[in-house]
Structures are given as C-alpha cells and as structure tokens.
Here is the input.
Amino acid sequence: MINQQQLWDDEAASKYDTPGEGMFSGDVLAPTVEVLSELAHSGPAVEFAVGTGRVAIPLSEAGVQVSGIELSHAMISRLREKVGEDRIPVVQGDMTVASAGRNFSLVFLVFNTIANLLTQDEQVGCFRNAARHLAPGGCFVVELWVPQLRSLAPGHSGTVEVSQPGYLLIDTYNVLTQHVISHHVTFGPELADGRNAQIGRTPHRYIWPSELDLMARLAGFELESRWADWDRSPFTAESRSHVSVYRLTS
Here is the structure.
C-alpha cells in the first residue's frame, strides 16, 4: 500500500500549484468559493486536507475564517510560503481523527480527496470527525468523482481517462476492493532528468453516491443538496462528479 505521507512529498508539493490554470483557474475557484461562503453563513470553516491552500486562501480572502487539517508536512510547508498560521491555522494530522476545534459552521473536503482514504472504515471515520467539528445544524461538503465503471470494456480492468500531448492518465480498477490506481504518465522528447517518460501512481477507494449517503447517515448527517458541479447544475445519471451538501441532524 502506498504511504500518503510519502506520496505527497516535497516534489509533489512543489508541483501541485498551477496558478490560473486547471483546478487553480478562476472559472473553477470562483463558484467554489461562492458556494462555500454561502454555506458558512458568516461562521468559521475548516477544510479537511487543506493542501497548499488552493481553496482555503481565496475563501479566507472572501471573509470566511478558515482553519485546516493536513497530513502532509510538505503541503503545509508550501501553504506557509503563501500565508501565515495567524491567517489559516493548520493542524498536521489524519483527517479521520485530528481535531481543529469545535463549533464550526462548515467542514469541506474537495477535489476527490475523501477517496485518498483507502478503506470504508476510514471514510466513515472522516464523516464522524466532520460531525465532531460542527455546531448543531452545520454542513459537511464533499466534492467527489463518480466511478466510471461503465467505461470498462468486457474483460478489461482499466480506462484511459486523459490523453493529451505529453500526458496520459490511466485508471485501473479492482472492483472487489473498490480500489483505483491512477497512473500518471508524463512524456516528451526529453524530460528534465534525461528520461523520455515518467510515471507516478496515486491510490484511491471509489465511493458510489448512495454509499456516501449511507456513510453520512451513520455519522448523523442527511443529504441536503447534490449538484453535478459548483455551479449547482443538476446531478444526473451522466454526471462524472458531484458536490454533495450534508446537514448535521444529531
């Protein structure tokens, strides 16, 4: 099993930010911050797996008091190059058990990161930890992809998710354990280290939306809203991802 602390090391942290592009683009971040600001209702928020501050920093700039929990020392160090502890305090630890405090209005976990927890028990533990952080009636927001098992050809266990100049993303599935390994292949005439190609692998445990809802109920939440994206577009059978808002009821 791949160790998450080793996976999100100094090299990964140094390459994580892509200012103005991809998931760091304004088109992605603006609706994300808008939704989270509204759900916080002027109260404090905590981001599980805060990373380098991709969402936490603009959310803080929008006036929300933001704290974070993050496992990777390297990702926290990268965040600290941008903002200080006084602005976005971060607890280093596992988001299934680490505590950033109590009585938050909002807990959020974005960009598929709950799938970095590789067992069902850990994923349920994440929901229960979110509940411990929230004030009564608070929200837990999860952004997650929908497993693309319909893309698997008969007799095959892998799919090509991205194919573009210089980059391939290939996902391989174990449908018994619900594990996915994402194989990131970067190639070109010659990379910086003299090789023609590099491959990195990231492990995940995929979760069906209905399974996610059951995890939420075990922790005292009810599903309030589910959208296909942060623009609140309808979630349908063809949606490849979702943003789910859970309300703490107990």
User: Anything to note?
Assistant: The chain has a mean pLDDT of 92. The chain is about 25% helix and 30% strand. The longest strand covers residues 134-145.
